[in-house]
Design brief:
Length: 176
Amino acid sequence: KLLAMLLTDIIKGAKIETEINVDLVRSVIYGGHYWALGWEMPGIFHSHIDKRSRVSFVVDMLDMWNFLEETFENLNEMEKARLTEMSGSWGKHVRFPGFDGNNETEYMSIAQFMISDLSRFSRFQDRKHDLNSHHPTIDTYNRMYRVFEPIRKTLGFGKAISVEQLAEVLNAQKLR
């Protein structure tokens, strides 16, 4: 409390412009109305903390889609035709669709933060504001990852996924 009060004195004394209402902070401290900070500044005083399991899931999905997209981009026309034969429309346009903005917002937010703020998964940098799939994806990604994970373990630096493996992962999107 003392440090917060001293900081408000410094801010006011130095006439530093800030988005924080320092008079409100002082009133909150004097009156013991700490709940008011959450009302006035919900972006700062929220109770949300990303679940580590969801962070791990998002990392796994971004990693998987990174491999899938890179593999697809490096296929020649004959291989792309073979992929389409093996996986139909799933093999025509291999691109990470994101997460559902209505029902998977925490996953989408984690992905955006990783891509934008942490500069990870640079492949998706141009899509950082367009990661809303507009449909649920978690179940689909889980099915795909169950197929991808054993393949991923065999991939070293520079080793690509085969067309058959790519088709197998993409086909896991289908409900069985």
